[in-house]
What we know:
Layout lengths: L1 E5 L3 H13 L3 E5 L2 H7 L6 E5 L1 E2 L2 E2 H11 L4 E6 L4 H9 L4 E4 L4 H9 L16 H15 L4 H8 L3 H9 L6
Parallel strand pairs: 1-2, 1-3, 3-6, 6-7
Antiparallel strand pairs: 4-5
Helix pairs in contact: 6-7, 7-8
Amino acid sequence: MNMLLIDDDEVFVGVLARALTRRGFEVTLAHSAQAALQAVDAGIERIVLDLNLGGDSGLKLLPLLRQKSPKSAVVVLTGYASIATAVEATKLGAVQYLAKPASVDEILQAFASVEPDPELALSARPMSLRRMSWEHLQRVLSEHNGNISATARALNMHRRTLQRMLAKKPVND
Length: 173
């Protein structure tokens, strides 16, 4: 089975590629959007796409990948998970959305479970206030197409304050 790994973190993607190769996958690596577009073809069956490619958005790359290889299943993998980006990724054609760090087994399971599951267990705890704030920032940022200045104006806050907040890792519950 052919798999394309698209991630700018060369160490992470190298470790993931070795683990997948040991499991019998034929793996191709791409560390940028341009390299990914050159590497993708109709023969690629599975694609793991990082959401943040060295400052470029994987969400912008996703429709191009789907166009060049419409039968490929795409799993979006990110260290900056939010509800807004998860929704957008699935609207654009991703079959699953995983937060880093994800194990090889979790990634393979994401490809295996592409059908909706109405029996999926609900979280017993509501989101924390800090996580809700992070999600709100991400949603407003998405509404303004990633424009920091427009997002800051919409939130009635200083642009640099917003940049500092976005530079932090997302809050885990």
